[in-house]
Amino acid sequence: MAKPVLLVTRKLPEAIEARAARDYDARLNPDDAMWATDGAEIARRATEAGAAGVLGAAGDKLDAACIGGLPDSVKIITTFSVGFDHVDLSAAKARGIAVTNTPDVLSFATAETAFTLLLTAARRAGEGERMVRAGKWEGWAPTQLLGVTLEGKRLGILGMGRIGRELAAMTRGFRMEVHYRDVQPLPPEMEQGAIYHAADDAFLGAIDILSMHIPGGEATRKWLNAERIARMKPGSIVINSGRGTTVDDEALIAALRSGHLRAAGLDVYDGEPRVHPGYLELENVALLPHLGSATIETRDAMGRRALENLDAVLLHNTAPPHRVV
Ligand code: DGY
Fold first, then answer.
1. Average model confidence (pLDDT) for the chain?
2. What count of other Cβ atoms lies within 10 Å of the Cβ of residue 3?
3. Region 6-34: what's the mean pLDDT?
4. Confidence of residue 193 (pLDDT cuts 50, 70, 90)
5. Separation of CA 112 and ligand 1 centre (Å)
6. How far, CA to CA in Å, does 91 sit from each of 9, 97, 99, 183?
7. Which of 18, 62, 68, 188 has the fewest beta carbons closer than 10 A?
8. CA 13–ligand 1 middle distance (angstroms)
9. Measured in angstroms, how far is the CA atom of residue 28 from the centroid of ligand 1?
10. Nearest CA residue ID for atom 4, ligand 1
11. Under CATH, what is the fold of the domain 107-287?
12. How confident is the model at residue 219 (pLDDT cuts 50, 70, 90)?
């Protein structure tokens, strides 16, 4: 029997591409050419290939027009990401196409990225690194690049899902006090002593550092705006490793410029890979290029998870384990 055709939109880890090529008639993207940012092009390639499945990724334009243009042969779209704000779920549902993602396996790595930004922002590590590289370091000085310690600080986790909880566990070694804001409190065994806040104002006013772990999409667009920033204590720090759309960039930049916020650490951007030019002028913001889940181990695990979903639908005619719609 002919293998099902699988359209793979981005270059994936070697072992994942090898497994995809073994089990599917896989149409790979060896050069990582960026055609998947054009939804019409995804639909065109899927139609030309007679694809049964599309293995996409964060940043692909899997919007309503793209999904509407897919051939009837497509049974499943799986995204190589936990986030699925780039996929129009209603359009997929209307066409009876399953959408799956790759949860759990990237929680620790993404929390590590948030923690990297926490330390980088609090201890001014980005500024220090730039100073050394630029040949501007003139030697140790008692008052040079003084940051703030994480010890004893109140960390506020916005969105206490899998990634938020991994971050909470990591910060315990730093003797931080963990607060969190979510739609409802977690059971005590998952809360692990973290303090729940049922309202934004009380949450923002209680913390020294905000780490954002909420999904993208219209419901959370520009959640961190000027009004909420004003509720934060002077000298607070903001970290975002969730989705860039959840921050009002103008408001964050203004607060970093004025000094109301001490520093920020960002891994994600509204409209990425475009980065608001205001951030580039600021020393007190650490900027990473969406490294959240970028470890060798995690990207392999995400690939395996994506293939488990595809295999279930296309090879075994069973329910995919990580279906979002
Ligand atoms: C995800 O999985 O949603 C990440 O943002 C991609 O690394």
1. 98
2. 14
3. 98
4. very high
5. 13
6. 19, 9, 10, 27
7. 188
8. 15
9. 20
10. 81
11. Rossmann fold (3.40.50)
12. very high
